[in-house]
Design a protein that fits this description.
The structure is a homodimer. Chain A is α+β, with helices and mostly antiparallel strands and about 220 residues long. Helices cover about 30% and strands about 25% of the residues of chain A.
């Protein structure tokens, strides 16, 4: 799997609070072995990783984080077990309730290119949160409007072919796992060009025994 | 399990877009039976429920939603299998990218009281998103500040005894599953008194074979 990236040199990802929290659930009694194998095979170069019983924190550049989480989820799903994964990506506020960055800080623009396909189909519910606090939208002179920013990210998903409809509180994405995760990261980074603090959550399902189409029919 | 609620009569939860998305992952090869049994035992009165391969949408009043998701998660965890659950609560914007509610709309204040204990210990990572868009904070005349609102919810968690430290992008909560979920809902509704559109995400872990203390030591 490879990702190309265009990125300014400063500030550092750590200063911008770039990172992820990842939970991968394997619905199989052999889940410990499957998860450890997936973690063992993933490329953690350049990343700070710490795990507790709830989720794994992954800190580093956008490109490294995306590569790692894609590899871990793909590794678990390659077992053919039903896998549910929860990914949080955040940027623009390193801490929990403290944030030293100005809401109008100019964050570097970052773009991720489509990753190599994994061969694993993923279905996802995606939510995106631009946390504007009313700071003026940079570079375009627009009023803060989190729903407009979300709409722009959904348009991006349509252009990448992963968009599969809207659901309550989420956008449905379907496609190769790498394409779905690239869409999520791209939408997050798109909004991050004009809003300093942006988080996104995606819940992914792979190898589900029940495939339910977006029209609600179970097939 | 029971919840008390204080709630104004209008607008309706559907008009306010009150609801949840829930994913419950059971790390056991018998997960289908365990999940179906949990769903079968939960009280879905007053709720609109629809499921696809990724998550279950639960629409209805705050009290009904909290009762149902607590019962479903407790039911799955009572199997003793390792269970990971992902819950999204949202209020103030029914749709995906459309929102007919004014960001300054006066939403009714809702309070949930502590629920009856489940006897199941849960560990959680909790994130809260007040989506202000710069609308004036109602009732207090304060400037929008999503980090201040999050800090108030964290203070609430400290007062309930579930607060267990801060983590990257999340607050750690520990305790009886009912107390943890009540804290999450209470913080969400606390912020919802002054910000119209508020969402919250929590990732819960139960019956983990690896108990990692908040100081990072594995025990």
């Amino acid at each position: 799997m490879s990702f190309a990236v265009t990125e300014a040199t400063t500030p550092t990802p750590a200063q911008l609070g770039v990172g992820a929290r990842l939970s991968v659930a394997v619905m199989d009694s052999d889940y410990v072995r499957i998860l450890l194998a997936a973690l063992d095979r993933a490329d953690a170069s350049g990343l700070e990783i710490s795990t507790d019983e709830i989720s794994t924190y992954v800190g580093g550049s956008e490109i490294d984080v995306l590569r790692y989480v894609t590899q871990v989820i793909a590794g678990a799903a390659s077992s053919s077990a039903h896998v549910s994964a929860q990914l949080l990506l955040s940027r623009g506020c390193p801490g929990e309730v403290t944030c030293d960055l100005s809401p109008t800080a100019a964050l570097p623009a970052v773009q991720v290119s489509p990753a190599a396909r994994t061969g694993i189909r993923a279905a996802a519910h995606w939510s995106l949160y631009p946390l504007t606090d009313g700071a003026p939208t940079r570079s375009e002179g627009l009023e803060p409007d989190h729903m407009r920013d979300i709409a722009a990210a959904v348009e991006l998903a349509r252009s990448t072919g992963t968009y599969a409809g809207s659901a309550h509180f989420a956008t449905r994405l379907d496609g190769d796992l790498a394409d779905v995760l690239s869409t999520v990261a791209s939408g997050w980074l798109l909004v991050g060009r004009t809003v300093a603090h942006v988080t996104t959550h995606v819940t992914l399902s792979m190898n589900s025994p029940t495939t339910v189409a977006t029209d609600g029919a179970i097939r």
